[in-house]
Amino acid sequence: MDDLETPVFAMQFTSSPRAARLARRLVARRMTAWGYPPGSDTSGVVALLVGELTANAVRHGRVPGRDFHLTVAVDVRTRLVRIEVADASGEKKPLVAAHVGVEDESGRGLLLVEALAVRWGSEPRDPVGKTVWAEVVADPPEGNGGRGRPQLTVREG
To answer: Which of 16, 112, 119, 145 gives 20 to 30 Å between its CA and that of 78?
Structure first.
């Protein structure tokens, strides 16, 4: 892979739980094609973040009749993986739960995003909606000069 390339996966999905699961599986396959196999930390963390952000788009950002859009890009030079999930709802900004009870069945997704991403946030989407994004830094992909298994750099809390 040429260092000037920025591999990109981009796709629009119906706003449903099934589509969120499909998005996660497709990204895992694309990460494998880019040199990050399913057993690597990089692929696992990217798949987890895609799963959380797309599930949030379906659950909290769904507007009937509107889809969500997913983009995953790897900047080969900086090894920065950027995940963007855009939905049609601009009203509900993502907030990290202040307290999640032991018995609560939801509310931990953005806590995971905050713990695993080096940066994350949201921005308005033109003409309507918002884009929630997260970034992680990965070591070189496998097959890159025998440098070994990719390891993920996780932000210390």
So the answer is: 112
What residue has token string 């999905």? 13
Q: pLDDT by residue (tens digit) across 30-50?
A: 999 999 998 899 999 999 999
Which of these, 140, 147, 145, lies nearest to 77 by C-alpha position?
Answer: 140
Strands 130-138 and 152-153, by their bridges, are: antiparallel
Give per-residue pLDDT as tens, 7-34: 999 999 999 999 999 999 999 999 999 9
Three-state secondary-structure class, residue 135: strand
Instruction: Enumerate residues 6+ apart whose C-beta is below 8 A from 12.
Output: 67, 68, 69, 70
Query: 94 vs 6, 59, 61, 123, 142, CA distance in Å?
Result: 28, 11, 9, 10, 34
- How many Cβ atoms sit within 10 Å of the Cβ of residue 148? 10
Tokens of 140: 């070189």
96 phi, psi to nearest 5 deg: -75, 130
CA distance 154 to 50: 16
